[in-house]
Structures are given as structure tokens and as C-alpha cells.
Amino acid sequence: HRRGIPEGILAEGKTPEEVRDLAEAAVETTGRALVTRADETHRETVESTFTPTAATVSVDDRAGTITVTSEAFEEPSLAAAVCIITGGTSDYPVAGEAGAVVEAVGADCTVIQDIGVANIDRLFDQLAEIRAADVVIAVAGREAALPTVVAGQVDGPVIGVPVSTGYGHGGDGEAALGGLLQSCTALSVVNVDAGFTAGVQAALIARAVDEAAESRK
Amino acid sequence: HRRGIPEGILAEGKTPEEVRDLAEAAVETTGRALVTRADETHRETVESTFTPTAATVSVDDRAGTITVTSEAFEEPSLAAAVCIITGGTSDYPVAGEAGAVVEAVGADCTVIQDIGVANIDRLFDQLAEIRAADVVIAVAGREAALPTVVAGQVDGPVIGVPVSTGYGHGGDGEAALGGLLQSCTALSVVNVDAGFTAGVQAALIARAVDEAAESRK
Amino acid sequence: HRRGIPEGILAEGKTPEEVRDLAEAAVETTGRALVTRADETHRETVESTFTPTAATVSVDDRAGTITVTSEAFEEPSLAAAVCIITGGTSDYPVAGEAGAVVEAVGADCTVIQDIGVANIDRLFDQLAEIRAADVVIAVAGREAALPTVVAGQVDGPVIGVPVSTGYGHGGDGEAALGGLLQSCTALSVVNVDAGFTAGVQAALIARAVDEAAESRK
Amino acid sequence: HRRGIPEGILAEGKTPEEVRDLAEAAVETTGRALVTRADETHRETVESTFTPTAATVSVDDRAGTITVTSEAFEEPSLAAAVCIITGGTSDYPVAGEAGAVVEAVGADCTVIQDIGVANIDRLFDQLAEIRAADVVIAVAGREAALPTVVAGQVDGPVIGVPVSTGYGHGGDGEAALGGLLQSCTALSVVNVDAGFTAGVQAALIARAVDEAAESRK
Amino acid sequence: HRRGIPEGILAEGKTPEEVRDLAEAAVETTGRALVTRADETHRETVESTFTPTAATVSVDDRAGTITVTSEAFEEPSLAAAVCIITGGTSDYPVAGEAGAVVEAVGADCTVIQDIGVANIDRLFDQLAEIRAADVVIAVAGREAALPTVVAGQVDGPVIGVPVSTGYGHGGDGEAALGGLLQSCTALSVVNVDAGFTAGVQAALIARAVDEAAESRK
Amino acid sequence: HRRGIPEGILAEGKTPEEVRDLAEAAVETTGRALVTRADETHRETVESTFTPTAATVSVDDRAGTITVTSEAFEEPSLAAAVCIITGGTSDYPVAGEAGAVVEAVGADCTVIQDIGVANIDRLFDQLAEIRAADVVIAVAGREAALPTVVAGQVDGPVIGVPVSTGYGHGGDGEAALGGLLQSCTALSVVNVDAGFTAGVQAALIARAVDEAAESRK
Amino acid sequence: HRRGIPEGILAEGKTPEEVRDLAEAAVETTGRALVTRADETHRETVESTFTPTAATVSVDDRAGTITVTSEAFEEPSLAAAVCIITGGTSDYPVAGEAGAVVEAVGADCTVIQDIGVANIDRLFDQLAEIRAADVVIAVAGREAALPTVVAGQVDGPVIGVPVSTGYGHGGDGEAALGGLLQSCTALSVVNVDAGFTAGVQAALIARAVDEAAESRK
Amino acid sequence: HRRGIPEGILAEGKTPEEVRDLAEAAVETTGRALVTRADETHRETVESTFTPTAATVSVDDRAGTITVTSEAFEEPSLAAAVCIITGGTSDYPVAGEAGAVVEAVGADCTVIQDIGVANIDRLFDQLAEIRAADVVIAVAGREAALPTVVAGQVDGPVIGVPVSTGYGHGGDGEAALGGLLQSCTALSVVNVDAGFTAGVQAALIARAVDEAAESRK
Ligand SMILES: Nc1ncnc2c1ncn2[C@@H]1O[C@H](COP(=O)(O)O)[C@@H](O)[C@H]1O
Ligand SMILES: Nc1ncnc2c1ncn2[C@@H]1O[C@H](COP(=O)(O)O)[C@@H](O)[C@H]1O
Ligand SMILES: Nc1ncnc2c1ncn2[C@@H]1O[C@H](COP(=O)(O)O)[C@@H](O)[C@H]1O
Ligand SMILES: Nc1ncnc2c1ncn2[C@@H]1O[C@H](COP(=O)(O)O)[C@@H](O)[C@H]1O
Ligand SMILES: [Mg+2]
Ligand SMILES: [Mg+2]
Ligand SMILES: [Mg+2]
Ligand SMILES: [Mg+2]
Ligand SMILES: [Mg+2]
Ligand SMILES: [Mg+2]
Ligand SMILES: [Mg+2]
Ligand SMILES: [Mg+2]
Fold first, then answer.
1. Ligand approaching nearest to the C-alpha of B135
2. CA closest to E171 among chain D residues
3. Please, which residues have CB within 8 angstroms of residue E175's CB and are 6 or more apart in sequence?
4. Mind telling me how many Å the CA of H121 is from chain B's nearest CA?
5. Same structural domain for residues C139 and C207?
6. Claim to verify: residue D104 and residue D207 sit in the same structural domain
7. Is the complex ipTM higher than 0.90?
8. pLDDT tens track of chain E, all 217 residues?
9. D121 and D56 housed in the same domain
């Protein structure tokens, strides 16, 4: 509902018809809809609902997102940059969900994958690019050391996102969440696998940055 | 170590002498020190260490913070506003810890207390002031409904801080933490009682806002 | 077994035949039966068991309830009103289960959906109707702020029902349960997804209210 | 704040002066104050604050409650009865806290102690008296079987209060809480040791009962 | 391996072939085998393995047990009685598993079902029969009040078995386990759903009773 | 209350006066009293209450028990033997509490200490003595491997008692409790540090053994 | 990446194609690949990828491992011995995963199965062989007493691996993990079911042993 | 008891006299004793027990260790190096406890403090020294990212030790423990604050390394 932030529709636990109805309502009232955690049945129903002449439907299979944008909708653009980083390939779905929000608000969005601390050189190679962003979203599973290490290397705010890709004690994301909450470098945190929430928080910061620039021009 | 953000020295679990040594080192190298979770013995030792001609020592008893600033230190100033709100009076120590960081970076800092949802009118009375901030820190214990409700009313980023002032199941801050992580309005979160971390995160956002304004002037 | 409160038959974990036998016995001895958490196989078996001339079978698919009432059964009626409110559409099954009990005892039953605190205006729009009830059942998942906020606005007893519709830390209803137990406004609580229990508790209060009126007439 | 329900002031974690100030404010605005979880220092300060000519201070040492009533205050009276039962003597403080609220609203309040299920005959001896109440508060620690057994024997609503008087696994009240939430007889529940909350909930039901009688007279 | 106690073969997590091999080995070396938690595939394979002339295979579908006894095996008989009681019908599988062990050692075995505390009269009706046993196994899910109540009524040892048939907080048997460990009447306890372990423990007590009688004859 | 089993009075959380009153009542009605978890203040008060001519008071400081026996009381004697074993010296208080019950019922009671599995030879040296008992109580902290190993070596029932003497993850007795519940040799279990409960359960078995012998003489 | 230790590719949660690509890359850059937690679809795709002339693919179905070795790869050989022991047959998959790593580094690898403490003689029969190893990996589920007992009998380092093959409280490997962390004999531990991690740790120790021998020759 | 590894005596929970007796026995039978978690009262009693002519007593106040060595004892010496690293100063007590064991077995022992990942340059500055060791003990609290990062940089085995120096969710060492068990670089782990266990495990590896060198000389 807020200026620029798309309404998120959580498909999980809803029928394709319920998701479709909610998406239609959102497009009608706000010009677009962002469906998250969608499976194939949700995708098929949503894709067949919107005619290409009236709306663009873009889908990210791995991230489980569907973005619907009406023709009339005027894409926003923010003078602010968000960098999303991940520890490993299995973190992609969560990172992609965050990215869908960041792109929807029109911020600059860079995604840098597979820079977990096991091979820390890959991380240091990318530091300049990461530091260039106004806000960083760091997505990591297992022990989630990446957000902690990165927050010690950059000057802007870092949002840590724990991921549930491990097994054994803490493998459901609880070890990652606990580690992020205890981080010795200052982070703010969202829930396990909550890419959407991280994306909104980053988008709100990006908007604050953009507005500051605007209001002083 | 970062430009403008003071080094935090966690007094809890350290002797007064250890805290004093760390504070002296910080003042020498960075011009100031911020001690958190200090008790009376820490305060006495730190206060008697710094001569009034060389440094200013300011203490917040309820928040457990000690801020030491050398004469030579040039106070920073950021063109950004942070609003810290609390549900009840027992949330003050955590809010005060956050406030010490926000003030140290030179952001505008407003503290609004006792606006928990039990008497929701008090919250609505303050909404205009809260909305005026670039970033909100919402501090709350027990069920911590306040940050969730506020995040639905303001357009900027909200950082939720769970507080450990309840009793019974979840009274150690776990109920508040769980509620903030599950918030149906998008929040980012820090650990239970982690006013310092929330303050740093808000300060980093304030700096990003300030920099945006600067770089486009 | 108690006057007016239907015997609940939990279908989950039982075969259709077991559920049918229990339902037949309940109808025979008490005039009706209330099956909860029924799936399609339970429904089919129960529906084909009772002939329309002997009993009415009414089904709520989304709530998973089946109510069987023998022709001979004299519907009770209580001079008391229960209002059931929900935070979002995924809370409906639990609310519906509670409603089935409340209706079975003959209390006035109003259901108001989708008034979660993210859009708090919708809640305030309904306050007059909610306040008119003798007892409120507030059903909510995720952080479950709704029951806390409502209990601060109404003068009667509120029963909070946590729902298991989240994901990540506390998403199985534990965050909602913890929040309700810690509520800074006084609530009583039932277990996660326990619509039936909430319904019975509200029904018992409704009956006490009704009896008070009766006995003093 | 609500008609008849006293404002609760949780003394735990507050200084005697803070409690005194809150109590004075409550007496001034509402005619009385109910302090809970008060220790000796709170009691001394509160008792020496109110002059006997202006207010009555009544203290329950074991329950940790202090009730202050101004001379001008008109004691309410409700045509409704609450029965508070306990499993053992160590449950008294929690029961007493509940009782202070129930008495403050002017409901009939009976307390029956030491009727835990280990000697179930004592419970059955008291059943007639328990059944006479409009609402029952059942307070129990350890495995908390008492509320479950009682709810199967009475026709009115039962509120279960788990108590933290055990040791070992679940001895902090978690076993009692879990058992009450899983009760095979329908209960509503409050948090561990939350006598105040149970008292308020019972008081709200008592008021609903009283109002029903009134409005139909 | 011990005199009279059959070797238990846990089928869960094993292929039918693995179970068959273990059963054949057990029958060969000890004259019989007791398979627990068997599904249909295990049953079919085991049943088709043993020819009726060489061994008797008896199956309890609801309990998931398969008992194989070679023709040559001499059934033991103990002068001791075990009574197994359950709270509700969904406790049967666990009770049946316990019963299979008790019968295998040749103790007297009585099973009394559906005497949970919700309808406490049914329990009191059976007390004489329960008291006649040398040892009682009390099987119960949800809040598991039954073993606590029974242990207060009988003079012999009671073994409590928590069952995982609830839902919500503690519904996986943890509430029942916690309640049994905290029981205010003295019980010993086995793990959630561990009918086999309870059966062995009761069998060992039965054997001790039998031996005492023998050795003093 | 049962024949031969002394009433346990848990001193923890009670004042010396409350304990004294309960002890006097127990001695008067049953001829004796067993106080557990008593500290020095409880001991002093109880010792000074009973005059040596009227009752014997025997105290076990390390176990925290006080046994009071009136002159008139006829000590029971059971033809059954209980063996209590411990892993290390810090398990003594729990073992001693169990022993006080076993001795009070008049069973043969042997205590064998410090035979934890770290030095497994000490355990095997004592096996003959352990096997001679009708029932074994095995008390162990940390990982509690002792009861599991012993239950594989003896033919009678073994009751495992977890002890809270560790530190770190599971050091509060939870690791020991979990291990005993999962034991691959069949054990029954009591709560963490619940020496009293283990003693009662062993005493009930001892009595069943004794009665069997009696009734068949 | 390190000399001799194969890169592990966790198949769980990856598509067959993703696993194949990672395996091809690993074989190309390091001469081999070790896939863990592979199911049938992973196996089929990997097996059909590598032509027998270019690489050897060896599969362990029960352990879920696939080892691919290019023709050109020169098998390492370490002068060090690892012994892997298990409590029961259901521990094999975890032991096999560990073994695949140990064999890949060229250490001597002995696997001894089914020597759990229920039948402790089998364990003592194998002690000489276990003691001959430089490092022991002890794999056990349920209460996991085996690693504790073995660490008291051998002079080298023991790595304990908890396994998730139980049911009820702690049956997901948490009881085993807690027991290993609390072991009264000194162990180091890896996560539940983490055969791969245990294998790598043992391999690193084996290499240190081998290097010590080399460097002093 | 094993060759070279001193017997550890845990002082916590023991009286000074008990510790003294155990220490005397250990010195008499093995030539030395290592007391851990000792407070001032333990230290005073132990120090006054051993006369300087008969034994050397060396104390580490911060680590809480006391090492007693008889004159006759021949100090062992191992050709192997252990490096102990810590994240921050509050980790020292745990590191010192580990160091006491490593030094007692005569291995080379280096301690490098305060190289937590917040300032990762300090860690990289020390890498050459860390890599020179045969085995690394990495001690860290809060999120414990240090062991994970280090294990990715060195070729030998790393033992991670979680420390309980945080606050809030996971601050009792559980977040650190969870992170180490989930580490994406292979670690073995000991319990929270278990410096002694880590020291023994490193000592056993050091001895295996030393023996390998010896046996091939
Ligand atoms: N109250 C606090 N809560 C959380 N972190 C803190 C706090 N105060 C200081 N810190 C952080 O802890 C680090 C210092 O830890 P230490 O070396 O133990 O003094 C600083 O770099 C801060 O980032
Ligand atoms: N013993 C108690 N347990 C739970 N809630 C309480 C208790 N005493 C007072 N309260 C509630 O806590 C609120 C006051 O909290 P506070 O502002 O911290 O004094 C009151 O409005 C009461 O609803
Ligand atoms: N150490 C103990 N652990 C567990 N239960 C105990 C203990 N001592 C006494 N009890 C039990 O607690 C009951 C007494 O509780 P109370 O009424 O609080 O004194 C007795 O009937 C005993 O069954
Ligand atoms: N079964 C396993 N358990 C734990 N870690 C594993 C396992 N198999 C592979 N790994 C580790 O996981 C990393 C691969 O993770 P990924 O990038 O998700 O394939 C490897 O570098 C290994 O260190
Ligand atoms: Mg940073
Ligand atoms: Mg907002
Ligand atoms: Mg209200
Ligand atoms: Mg009832
Ligand atoms: Mg009994
Ligand atoms: Mg045995
Ligand atoms: Mg060993
Ligand atoms: Mg490494």
C-alpha cells in the first residue's frame, strides 16, 4: 500500500484461485502485484489470467516469485543502490525473493552469489562492488558467517537473512538466525528465509536515501 | 572504527580496570568511547580516570551507558532524524542505550516513551512526530505489538528491539523476539535487549541518508 | 456431554469408519455430532451415512467441520453474543471451527474477517460491532498482535487463538502463542489452531451470561 | 482503566519510588491501585505513602499484592461468583494475586486450597461449592492435572493457571502450561504464574454475567 | 536376549528384507521374534517367510506388531499380572505394542481402554480391576492426566507412557512427557510412544514378582 | 499415604515453619515424616521440634533429607533388595534422597558409588552385587551412559535418574534425561534430580516383590 | 580444495543437473568429486555422465555417496589408520559417508559395525582392532553411549557422530548430540548425521600423522 | 589416567576439601593434578596443601586452573604444536583451560588472542603462525564466526569451542554452538565453554602426531 512498495501475496497455503483473486485486486488498485512462494499451479493460473496487452507477468522459477505489472503502471526509480549477496547457490531462492522487491521499487539492484567464507578470497574480490551500495542484504544458511564478516568490511547498513538449507542441529535456519542475532558486527536481521521482508526493509532504506537527495536538491 | 560510529565497550563481564583501559585506548585513538551495560563500579572507575579538562564523561544511569569525549574531538552532525519509541517505562534502559549511539553519530534523536498498544490513543497522538523521522527504533517487551503496529503507520524503515521484561513462557524476550520476526508489517530486528545494535543500525541508515543529501548537493 | 455443548469428534488420525461410528453414537445419545479436522474421505463417509429424513448434515469445507443434527433435536438458543474476528484469510479454518461450536450452542455468532493490525483502520471500523458482543474470540497467526490490540479496546473477555500459518522461527504458531501469553492487555488463550477449544470456552461463557439473565428474570 | 477493573502495577523490576508514583497516580485518577509482585521494600514505601485518613492500604504478604483504596472510592459489587482452587500450598501466591483482582471488582470470591489430584477425594468433597461459581480459576503447578479434572466436572468456564513450583524438566511451569494447553477438557489458559491475568479474565466474565442480569431485569 | 524377554525388531526405517532377515535370525536363536512399528510391506514379507508348519505368525495391525513363534518354542508363564490402561482410542497402537511384550513373557495381561479423565467415572468403575494388577502401564496423550490420577489410586508401581496424538504446542507428546515427569504422584516414565519399552519394564517387574514367589515356595 | 511409603515433604520453597508443621502432622498421622531438599534452616527447626524421647530425627546433609520417626512407629521390613548406583560423587545427593525412601519402606538397600563408564572396570567389578538386587536405581549426570550400560547387564528392572551436574548444552540434566529416554536397553526414567520419585517407584516394586512372596507362602 | 581432501557436493536439495555440473567441474579441476546424500535420480544422471574410459564412478547406495575419479587422478596414500565403528545397522549410511572421505584421502579405513553397548561383549571383542587406529570415528544414534564408552578404552582421539534414527523426545539426534557433548570421556563431536564432516576431520588428523612421519624420516 | 593426559578435577560444585582430596590422590598416583573451574576458596586450600619441596602448584586466575606437579614427576614432551586462538578477551578463561591441558602433555602451545572477524586483518596477520601448528583450537563466543573462517584457511584439523559470553537469544553459547555444528568448513566441536575437553582432544591428536614421528624414526 505504501508509495512504491508492492503488496506481497504469499502463495504458500493458498489455492491458485485465491492467489489469482488477490493478484487481480492488487493490480487493479495499485497497478501491480508481487506473488511470493508460488509453485507451478499458482504460476499457471496467474499467467493465464492477465492478457499480455493489459499487463506484464514476469516469473522467477527458482525464487518462486511472480510480478504482475499493468500497462498503465509507471515504474518508479530511486537514486539508491542495494547489493544482495549469498553464501552459496542454495541461497538463491531467498535472495531472488528479496531482489524482486528491490527491483519493484526501482532501486539499483546487484546480486553477487557464492561468496561464502569457505573461500574468502571470492568475497574480498567483490568488496569494492559491495561497498558501493547504500544498503547490503546478506543471505546465508548453515552457520551464516558471511553477513558478520561483510558487516565488518562495509560502511553502510547490512541486513542479514538466515536460510534453512542445513541439516542436523540448527539446520532449519535456527543456527543461522542465532548467529546473526549474536553477530559481533552490528546487523539487523529478518526471519529465516524471509527474503521478502529483507527486500522491503532495504527498499524502505533506499527510499529514505532517495528522498534525502531529492529534498535537498 | 567506522567514520562516526563510536566503538562500543560492553562492560558486563569485564572488571572496572579492563573497561577503563579499553576506554582510554578508544579515546586516544578515536577521540571518544561508549561503554554499555556499565554498573556503578564501572562508572566510578571511568569517571575518576578522565580529568574534566581533557575529556567530558556523560553517564546515563538507567541505560547503563558512559560516553567519554575528548576535548579535541569534533562532534559529528548528520542531516537525518531517528525516533526511538518504547512501549512502557521498563523499556527505557534499552532505548537509552540505542539513543547513546544515535546521539554520538550526531543524528537528530527523539525519544517517545510509554506508547504501548494497551492505550493505543497515546500512540496515535504521537504519529506525526514519529513519521517525521528517517528511521524508527521501536523498543518493546512482553508481546511487543508496538513495533508491528507502528510499522503499519509509517513510511520509513522500522527496527524492532525485543525487551526481556516479562515473566513466564517467553518472558525472557523470546516471545517479543518471535513476534517481531513474524511481524505482518515488514520490520528488521535485533537481538533481545540489544539497544546498542539497534542504535548502530539506525546510525548507519542515518549516515546513508546524510551522505545521499551531501553527494547530490 | 454437558447441556448444550456438542461432543467434538477429532477426525484427524481416525479412519472414516471410526469417525462415522463415533458420529452415529453421538447423534443417537445427544441428538447431534460435531466432527472437526475432517478431510474429504471423512466427509463422504459421514454424508452418506445419515439419510436426509433422519438428520441434517452441514459441512464447512474450509473449516473442516461436519455438523450432524437429528430431526428430533431441539436447537438450543442462548441470549448471549459471541464475536469471532480474524487477522487474515488464512485464519478462517480455525475461526470456522470455533464458530461451529458457538452456533451449535445457539449463541449469537458474528464473524469479522481480515482486520489484522497491518491496516488498523479496518479494525477500528468494526469496533462498535465487536464491542456489542459478550465475549470475543480473536484468531491470529504470525505475530498475533490483533487479540492484544482488541483486548485494549473492548470491555468484555477476549479469548486469543494463535494460528500456525507462518514460516521460519515461530512460524508454527509458537510466536503467536508466546505473544498472546505475554499480552500486555489481559487475555485468556487456547492452544495453537485450537478453534474448537476457543469455541467451547466462549460457549460456556455465553451460557453463564444466558443463565444469569434467566435466573434473575 | 476499564469500569471496575483496577489498573495493575507490576512492582517486579521497579524501584519502590517508581511503584509509589504509579500507585499515587492510579489512586488519584481511578480511586485505587493494585500493586502485584511487591517485595518488602515496595510494601514499606507504599504503606508509608498513604495516610490512613485518605486511603486504605491492604497487603497480602504471601501473594505479594498491595491494594490501595481511597476513602472516596465506591466499592463495586457484582452479582457473580468466582471460585479459585489450588493443587497445593505452594500455589497460594498465584491464587492470591488472582483473588485480589476478583475482590477488587466486587465479585463473590471463594478460595479452596490443596485439592490436587494426588488425593482426589478432597476435590470431590468440594465439587458442589466449585460448581456453584459462575467461573472457576484453577491454579496448579507440576503436571497441573487439577484444572483438567475439574473442567470435566463443572458446567461453567474454567481458566487454568500454570505455576512454576517444580524442578527438573518442565519444572519452571512449562510442563504445567503444556498440559493445560493440551487439556482434553476445554480450558482457557493464562501464562505461567499469571494470577493477575487470570483474575482480570474472570472479572471480565463476572461483569458480563452481572450485566446480563442487570440489562434484563 | 534375556530369559523370557523377546528381542524387539524396530521395522521403521528398515526394508522388508532387513526385517525378515533379523526376524529369521531371532527365531532361529531364541525361538521367536517381535517386530514393532511394522507397516503393510513388512507384514507381507514376514508372513510369507515363515511356513505355518514351522512357526506361528500373529499380527496386530493397529499396533503395528508381528510376533513370530517357532513350533518348538515353549511359551513362558509368569505368576504376575499387568494392567494396561489408555485415555482414548488413539492411544491403542502404543498400548498394543506394550501388550505384545507383556504377553510374550507370559504375564497375565489386561487392557482397559478409553478411561481418560474427561469422564472420570469410567476410570473409577475400573479401579478394582486395575488395583488387582502387580504393575500398571498407563498410556495417554494430550495432557496425560490419566497416569497421574491412577497412580494416586493404586498401591503398585505405575509406568506412564506419553503419546504423540495432539496438535499445537506440546502436541508431539512433549506436553504429555513433561506432565508425567512432573507428576505429583510418583510414576516412572518411558519415552513418547515407547510402548515397547514400557512393556519390557513391566515384564521385568512381572518377572521379579514371579521369581520372588518361586524362590520362596 | 500408602502402606509403608512415607509422605514426602519437599522443603524447597517452604519456610522452616511450614516444613515443621507438615512434619508434625505427618508424624502424628502416619508415625513418621520424610523431608527432602532441606537446607540448614529447615534442619535446625525440625531437629529442635521433636524431643528425643518422642521421635528419632536422622539427617543426611549431603542428600538434604530429614527422616523423623516416632517412638511408636513400627519399622516395616520387606523381603526385597534395591541397589542404588552412581556415576560419580556429585550424584550422591540424588542417590541419597532415593535411598532415604528405600530404607524407610524397609527394603534392603545397597549404594555403590563412582562406577561411571569412564573407568568401566569398576562397574564390572560390582556387577555381581548389582545383579543380586530385585531392582536397580542408576543415578548419573552428564551423558548418563551408566544406566544404559547397566540395563544391558542385569536381568531385573532398572530405573534411570538423570542428574543436573554438567554445564554447557544439556548440562542442566537435559542431555542425561534425553539419553535415558532414548536408551537402547529398556529403562524407565524419572525427572532430573528426582531421587525421591525413583525411590518411591523402587519401593513400590520392592513391595510388589515382597507381597508376591508373602501371598504364596 | 585442500591437498588430498575431496570437495564434497551435497546432492540433497539440488537437481540432478546441478549435481552433475558441480561434479564435472570438480573432476576437471581436482581430478575427482565426492557427491553425498544422493538419491537415485542423482545417481543415474551422474553415472550416465562420465564415460568409463575417462573416469571411474563408484556408488554406495546405502550411504548415498558417489565417488567419481578421473583416469588421470593419482590416488593419494597416507601412512595413518582410521577406524569407523557403529552402534547398529541403521547407523551405516552415516558411517559410509565418513568412510568415503577417509578412503578418498588414502588413509587405512576399517569399519566395524553393530557394536553398541546393549551387547557390550561385541565391543570388547573388537577393542584391539579399534585401538590400532590413529583416530576413531564412533557413529551412534538413540542415546549414543558407544562413543563415550570407547573413548574411555582407547588412547587416540575419538570423533563422535550422533545419528537421527530414534523417535520420541530427542529421537531426531538431539539426545545423541547432547550426550556426546556431555561425554564424561573427552570426545570431539560433529553435527547430527554429519558423516562427511567427521570423515574430513579424521582425514585431516590422518594427514597430520602422515606428515609428521614424513617430515622426520 | 592415559599416558601423558592429566586427570581433570572439576572444582565447580565441590567443596575445597573434596577438591584437595581428589588432587592429593591424583598427585600420589599419577604425579600431578589439573583442577579446573576453581574459585579462590579452592585455590587457597590447594595451595596450602602441597609443600613447595614436594610439589609445584601453578595457578591461572583468569582461567580458573590449578596445576599441581610432584617433584618426582617427569614432564613429558611431544614433537607436535597446538595453536589456540580466541575472538576476544572474554574468551580467555576457556582458552586458558585448554592451554593448561596442552602444556601438561608437553606439546608446543601458542595462544593468539583477539583475532575475531570484526577486524579480520588481525586474523590474516597471524595466519602463518596458525598454519604452522599441527592442530588448532579456535575459541569464540557470540556468533563464533572465527573457527569457520580459520578452518577455511589452514590445512590441519580445527577444533571449535563455543563460549557463553553473549546475551539475548543464543547468548548462553547456543548460537555459537549451533554455528560451529553447521560450519560450512569442516570442524569438530566440543561443548559450550569446554576448554578442558578441547585441550584433551588436541593433546590426543598431538600425541598421535608425536607417536607417528617416533615410530618411523
Ligand atoms: N550493549 C552491547 N550489545 C551488543 N554489542 C555490543 C554492546 N556494547 C558493545 N558491543 C559490541 O561488542 C564489541 C566489543 O566487544 P568486547 O571486545 O567484548 O568489548 C564492540 O565492537 C561492539 O560492536
Ligand atoms: N502480575 C502481573 N502479571 C501480568 N500482568 C500484570 C501484572 N501486574 C500488572 N500487570 C499488567 O501490566 C500492566 C502494567 O505494566 P507496567 O506498566 O510495567 O506497570 C498493567 O496494565 C497490567 O495489565
Ligand atoms: N524431592 C522430591 N521430588 C519430587 N517429589 C517430591 C519430593 N519430595 C516430596 N515430593 C512429593 O511432593 C509431595 C508433597 O508436595 P508438597 O505438598 O508441596 O509438600 C509429596 O506427596 C511427594 O509425593
Ligand atoms: N554430507 C555433507 N554434510 C555436510 N557438509 C557437506 C556434505 N557434503 C558436502 N558438504 C560440504 O558442503 C559444501 C558444499 O556445499 P554446496 O555449495 O551447497 O554444494 C562442501 O564444500 C562441503 O564442505
Ligand atoms: Mg559494516
Ligand atoms: Mg511502515
Ligand atoms: Mg479488553
Ligand atoms: Mg467443564
Ligand atoms: Mg500409586
Ligand atoms: Mg537389563
Ligand atoms: Mg580415549
Ligand atoms: Mg581447514
1. 6
2. D182
3. D175, D178, D179, D181, D182, E142, E143, E144, E166, E169
4. 13
5. yes
6. yes
7. yes
8. 455 788 899 999 888 998 999 999 999 999 999 999 999 999 999 999 998 888 999 999 999 999 999 999 999 999 999 999 999 988 999 999 999 999 999 999 999 999 999 989 999 999 999 999 999 999 999 999 999 999 999 999 999 999 998 899 999 999 999 999 999 999 999 999 999 999 999 999 999 999 998 876 5
9. no
